[in-house]
Automatic annotation (TrEMBL):
Database matches in Gene3D superfamilies: 3.40.50.880
Record-given protein name: Uncharacterized protein
GO biological process: purine nucleotide biosynthetic process
Coiled-coil zones: none
Record organism: Micrurus corallinus
InterPro entries on file: Class_I_gatase-like, PurM-like_C_sf
GO CC annotation, single: cytoplasm
Length: 118
């Protein structure tokens, strides 16, 4: 199975044969149609109709890059440097280790997760 998204169109190819080629907006509408049918059973149908009408007026985003992707970014050069290493020790019953690991990762550390049994 090969999945590709080109120019806001999803293309799925299985064994070299294209099985799906559709705009993302149409696929999104199909997906949301089921949700709106279920929502009409649970909420005020007038409110659901308003939401559906509002979403039908969406426009596709216009993405533009603010940099030249051909140039090597300074951040990538920094990432190539060896990261400082840190070990996060955790004991049974502790719960702050995930936040600590995330903080160290965001600060650029190479994090080792160790339990007291290690």
């Amino acid at each position: 199975v090969f999945l590709m998204c080109v120019y806001f169109q999803v293309q799925v190819t299985v064994n070299g044969q294209q099985v799906l080629a559709e705009k993302v907006s149409i696929l999104r509408n199909w997906w949301e149609a089921t949700s709106f049918q279920l929502e009409r059973l649970q909420a005020n149908p007038d409110c659901v109709a308003q939401e559906e009408m509002g979403l039908s007026k969406r426009t596709e985003p216009n993405f533009t890059l603010t940099f030249n992707p051909q140039e090597e970014l300074p951040l990538l050069q920094e990432m190539a440097l060896p990261a400082p290493r840190v070990a996060v020790l955790r004991e049974e019953g502790s719960n702050g280790d995930r936040e600590m690991v995330a903080a160290f990762l965001m600060a650029g550390f190479q994090v080792w997760d160790l339990t007291m049994q290690d």
